[in-house]
Amino acid sequence: MTLLICHTQYRLYSIMAVLVMLLGACVTPLPASAQMQQASASKALPSNAAAASPQNAPATIQLLKVAPETGYVGDSFTITGKALPPNKAVEFIWATANGSYVTQASAENVEFYKKKFDEYRLSLGKTTTNAQGQVSASFTVPEDYGEVHDIFAVVDDQDVAKGGYRILRDITVSPTEGPLGTPMTIRVTGLGWKTYESTIAVRYDNSFTGIMTAVTTRGTAAAVMRAAGGVGKHVIDINHGAKSVPYLNNQQSGTAHIPDHRFWFTVTEDAGPLPFSSTGRMRAVSSRPPISQPRPHHTALRQHQASRPSWSLPLDPSSPNLPCTPRAYLPIPRSRRSG
After folding, report:
1. How far is CA 284 from CA 50, 106, 126, 288, 316, in A?
2. pTM exceeds 0.70 for this model
3. 101-147, pLDDT tens digit by residue?
4. CATH number of the domain that 219 lies in?
C-alpha cells in the first residue's frame, strides 16, 4: 500500500516537471534591443521624491493661524500670519456661497428642482505686513452659513496663506412660557449650505411641526408657532432634517459634530377674557400712538356723523346676543326719518 502511494506521487511530480518545461519553452525571450529600451524607460520614470520636487510644485502657501477657530455669528477672531512677503499690502478673503432655488414657473404651478449654491469669495479687510513678513488683524464673524469657511491671505492677486474658521449653529426660542396659543419665535443662525447641514426639523411634544431652511438668507432663519397642550412643561426638539422629516439618529451620522437642541416651554393658566371697565368698554391697550392734531378728513367725518340722527338701545351686558358690548348704537331706518 505504501509502495503504491509513493509510486503515484512520483508520477504526479514527473507530470508537473514536464509541464513547467513546456511552459518555459513557449515563452519567447525579448530581443536585446527591446531589453535595452525597457531598461532606459524604467530609468526615465521619476520617483515619488522627484515628482514632489519644489521645481514642479506650486509656490508654498503659508498657514494662517485663527484664534479662536470656532464661534458664533457676531463673535470676534484674530488672524496671524508669518513668512509672508515683507512690507506688502495683504487682503484677507472669506470663502462662502450664494444660495438659490432652481424652479420652473408656469401659469398653474411652480416646480421645484433643487437647491443651488455658487461658491464665491468676499473681502474681510486689508492690512500690511511688517519687515519680517508678519501680519495680524481682527475681524467679526459675518452673518453667513454655518460650518467651515476658508480664509485666504492675498498679496498681488496671489494666495500666499490659508486658514479657516467654523461658524457654530445657534438656536433660541422666545418666550419660554405663556398661556395657550402664545406665539413662540424660533431663531437660528449658522445653518450650513452643504447637504444635511442646511435643514433642521422642529418637533413639539415629539410631534413633527415643520422644517426650517436658510438657503437664500445666508444661514439665518426664523419661524413662529403657537403653544399647545395643557398647563405645564412641553418639550421642543430641534434636530437635523432629511428630506423634510426629522432625522433621529444624528449620533451615528456624518453630522454628529453638529449637536441637536432641546428647549422647554411652560403653558401657564389662561386669565380669561379682558374684564369690562366702569365706562362700559373693554380694557385694552392700543399700540398706536395718540394723534395730537386731528387730520382734516377725520374732522369732516366726525361732523358728518354728529349731524346724523341716531337712537340708542341700552342692553344687558349678560345678554347672549351681544356678549362683547354693554350698549349698541344702531342707525335710524330711512322710513322713520320723514317723521
Report:
1. 84, 47, 55, 12, 21
2. no
3. 999 999 999 999 988 999 999 999 999 999 999 999 999 999 999 99
4. 2.60.40.1930
